[in-house]
Each structure stands twice: as structure tokens, then as C-alpha cells.
């Protein structure tokens, strides 16, 4: 069967109106919210901010000095107070916050009271180790309950966390520690992944030997690895929380105080520390989580299957769900351990009602076949979500049919680390869905698709996705580099227009279809990786003279990394060296950045001014027709690369 293209699908026009019983009980049942928010968009966000517990009311809703925004200035609140104490105070202390399941089958249940007490104990421990307001704390932990606890403990005392995905290398950890000047690291002895143990503390040791900033390291015992604890600097988590009080007054924070930094790839080799603050961020993650997932705190069991190391986990495993008093599942491991139906066992065992995952996972489940979910009772599910990359209509329809049993709306949610929260998405009780479309901006959000000149395109047109009005959870700056903040996001179309870096198309009804990145950022399995970052890792290898990297389409991962490498001297590339280079990149950045293919070439195609023609390499990687190459300085190299690329594809 050939896959329908977007054009075909638009013509075909499959649509899915909200099921009647879903619409009848929907949290947002009425289309009128769009107009209401349009009439007074600041007032709309105020109505959501008012659902939180403020320690001091704000004076001003928005100060917009383009491109810098401040929301709810003068107001004070504490994020952990809103996520924990508020619910316990209102009599919900016994409600489960997290059903945690380890990859090895171990389980822990944490109620809101448990989570509050554990957070307070660790917050007190951090204080006793000298951590205070404004200090940066790097958190390098697997998906264990101590990860949200550590984040909430930082939020409680006003420390700024910088979570580093546990799959990242020691070098990536060093870069992030140095950039944020983090003097504290929280890690674990090891992490389980597909039955293997990743030696996290050993990685952290390598990192801490490379940077001399870290004066305190707290280690959670998870796998029982042998670890070396260095006197003075290193402490076991269980030792430092021992005897600590379960009470720790939340630090009153200004709405604009920094809550966290989270690094993401940009178009250069240096990751950007995206800065999120307190009041606006919590307002929008809570509001969108409640509206988009139709959350019913008393009855839903919600599972976002992302890793907390990415923004999806920050906003939709930790802060949004906890602010809304959600009962969530927290799963530590891989979807195929010990078997490929692990997700469906979890849905069945906990009675999951809302599942939020990524298209790359859905396509993998498709490949594994419908019999695996079919063997489990998934009737508890009532809503499905997708995030991280464009979802192809076939995957959407499969998800709807085989996971959702044909009865669950699928919300395709577009957003970014920078936006902090969902920006474009259906509202499941209202929107008639089109498979593959994120549909329309949420109430209060002004998303506009523009052409090269910055003019809005009409329905049926395509161009660049922009956001043309500030929103509460927007990034405030790039840590330590405000110029880069301005130039990356607010320069292309003027300083009032946020440039998202995504291409998008409007269909005839004006609905939004995301098309992928328009810059040198690849999207592999929903993870952002910059071509330059991978190129820098490759040229860092002693055998490599030059490298150019591009993303090519991949049926499973969305994009795969294709690398073109020329070697120093007369050295010839072979499979052993290709394997060594792939490993080298994994060690430098992390496994997610390992190139799928490495093609050795005598030279890279260059313009007469010496610039590598990446666009041409992308066309070669995609197997596309090449245009005129005669203007190149070294046109003859193209035929060599093409021949080798074709030979490599044939041998796959
Ligand atoms: O290209 C878009 C894609 O992921 C990018 C943001 O990546 P990151 O900051 O890592 O955050 C991922 C999770 C929010 C975007 O610029 N993207 C994200 N969601 C979608 C998407 N592309 C299409 N459809 C989506 N629903």
C-alpha cells in the first residue's frame, strides 16, 4: 500500500468528529473559548493563572518590551507548593501522584503526601549541603521517582534545575555544567535500559573530572553498581535525606524568577540553555494539560511515555500534571523490555485513560503489529496524544484504531522546548480531527504561517510557522546569551514575531499541517539534534579531515543521520572505521546522535568560496535528482559521492 501524501489526504478528507459521549463530558465543551480568548487574550491567561495559589497577587499581567516578556510581575508563588501542598491542604493527600514502574518490574506508589514529604526531605538535605536560591543544579537521573522529587525540591528552595537526559554522554554533561555554572550534580549509580545498566555515576565522574566546578554530588542508589564516592564532594541520597524533616517551607518566588534551564540543539554546535520562569510557565502548562488532555483529576490515570530529560517530561510528566492533581504513571524503561507488549501491559495494569507518546513510537508499534496491543484490555483508554514530530496520517489512523479502539480522540500537539507548553492542538471535546494535522492554535495563541517576506499565507498556502503574540510559558532568554535569543528567534521577521524554525502548510479550511524543520536541525525519533553538533563530534576524531551531516527521511525515526566524511592523508574508509566513528559520536554526544550511515568521500562538494553544499548532500541522501552542479569548485566529486551512496543503499 502506498502511503497517502498530505495532498491526497486533504483531498480524501477523512475526518473524526468528537465522539458524542466524550463531547458531552468534555472539560472544554464549547467552541466559544476561542472567541472569548481572542476578545481578551491577556484576560484569558489571567483566568488560568487564577487557578493557581499565589502568595502575593501580581501587579501587571504582561510587560512586553519586544522581544522580552514578563508575565504576572509583582506576583509571588512557589511551584512545588502549587504541585503538592495545595492538593494536600485541600484534602487530597492520599491521592496517588505517581504509579512508578521500574523496567525490572519493581513498583512504587507515591501519593501527593508522600511526594510532598520526600520533596521536603530532599529540599532540606540540599539546603544542608549549602544549596540556595538561584544556584544551578544539574540533574542527571533515570526515570525514577527521585527525578521529579529532585526537580520539585529545587523549585521549593528556589534553586534552578538543569536536567540532563540520562542518555547523554559525559561530554554533554560537562558542556551543560559549564554553561550554567552548576556546582551541584544529582545522579544515580546506574540506570536500567533494556535490561542493561548504564553507569551513570561513572559518566558523572568523568564529567566532574573534566570540569572543576562541581563541589557537591548526590547519588541515588538504583542499580547497586559499585561506585566510588569521593570524600567531601559525593554523598548517597539515602544518607543526606536520613533524619531530615518532612517539612520545608516553600520559598516565595517572583513570577519571573527562573524555574529551570533546559538545553536544546540549535543550528550551531553549542546547545542553547532555554530559560523558563515560574508564574507564566506554570499557568500555561497547567492550563494546556487540563484543556488538551481533558483532564479529570478524580478519575483519570494519565501516562506521558516521554523521558523527563526532555521538555515533554518537564511540562507534561512533572509540572502540568502535578499542578492539576493528576494521577500519573511513571515508567522507567524501554517499550520492548522484557517484551514488545510492555506498554500495553502497563495500560491494562493501571487502567490508563490518557496516553501521550511520540510518532516514532507509534510507527514502531505498527511494525510490531496489532496483535500485541490486541492481546490486552485497553478499554480504559479514552484519549490519545502525539508529540515531537509530524505524525503521518497512516500512523495516526493506526493509533486511533488499534490503540484507541476507534473511540479515542487523538490530539496531535505542536510545541517546542522554547514554547514551554502546547501551542497548536485540537481540543478533544470540540475539534473535528484530521489525521496528520495539529489543527489550530489553542485559544489565546496567535500562530501565523508566513511567506519569505513575513506576510501571512492564505488557506492552501505554505511557509514558515511564526507566533505573533507573547504567551505565558515562552522562553525568556538563552542562559548567558541574550543576543543569541534575539537573533535566533526574533530577527527573521522583526522583533515582535517569533520564528519557530518549522515549515507549515494551511489547508483550505485554514488548519495547520506541520512539515518539519527549515533549519539545520534534524529530528530523529522526536529528538532535536543539530547537524553542526554531529559534524563537530566527527571532526574531533583523529582520522577525520572534514565532515558534513544531513538528515534523510526514515520510515521509522522520522529522520536518520547521514554523514559524509573525508579522511586525513591517504587513509581509506572501511566498515571498521565507520563503526568507530559512529561510536565516537555516541560517546561525544549520546547514542541518539549516532549516524545511521557514514559515507567516505575524497572531498566534500564545495562552492567556489569554500562552503560545503549541504543542500546537495541532502538531495543525495534522499536519493533526489540533483540540479546544476557545474558552479561547484569541485563538481567531479559529486559523481563519486552519488555512486558510493547508491552502492551503499543497494547493499543495505
Ligand atoms: O519541529 C518541531 C517538532 O519538534 C520541534 C521541537 O522539538 P523539542 O524542542 O525537542 O520539543 C519536542 C516536544 C515538544 C519542533 O520545532 N515537533 C514537535 N511537536 C510536533 C512537531 N512537529 C510536528 N508536529 C508536532 N506535533
Topology at a glance:
Layout (H helix, E strand, L loop, with lengths): L5 H7 L7 H5 L7 H8 L1 H9 L10 E6 L2 E6 L2 E2 L1 H14 L3 E6 L5 E5 H17 L7 E5 L5 H12 L2 E4 L6 H11 L3 E5 L2 E3 L2 E3 L1 H11 L5 E5 L13 E3 H5 L11 E2 L3 E7 L7 E6 L1 H14 L8 E4 L6 H13 L3 E5 L10 H9 L3 E4 L1 H10 L2 H4 L8 E5 L5 H11 L6 E4 L33 E4 L11 E6 L14 H8 L8 E9 L5 E6 L3 E4 L2 E4 H9 L4 E11 L3 E10 L7 H14 L8 E4 L13 H9 L13 H16 L1
Parallel strand pairs: 4-17, 6-7, 6-8, 7-14, 8-11, 11-12, 16-17, 16-18, 18-19, 19-20, 28-29
Antiparallel strand pairs: 1-2, 3-13, 4-5, 9-10, 14-15, 21-22, 22-23, 23-24, 25-26, 27-28
This protein binds adenosine-5'-monophosphate-propyl ester (PRX).
List keywords for this structure.
652 residues, alpha/beta, GMP Synthetase, Chain A, domain 3, seven-stranded mixed β-sheet, 29 strands, 33% helix, 23% strand, binds adenosine-5'-monophosphate-propyl ester
- DSSP summary, beta strand count: 29
Largest sheet: 7 strands, mixed
Count of spatially separate domains: 2
Q: Please state the structural category.
A: alpha/beta
Query: Which spans have pLDDT < 50 for at least 5 consecutive residues?
Result: none
List the bound ligands.
adenosine-5'-monophosphate-propyl ester
Give the radius of gyration: 24 Å
- Intertermini distance: 22 Å
Overall mean pLDDT stands at 95
State the CATH topology of the largest domain.
Rossmann fold
> What count of helical segments does DSSP give?
21
Question: Biggest sheet: strands side by side, in what order?
Answer: 5-4-17-16-18-19-20
The percentage of residues in β strands lies in 15-25%
> Based on the structure given, which CATH architecture of the largest domain is correct?
3-Layer(aba) Sandwich
| Shape type | globular
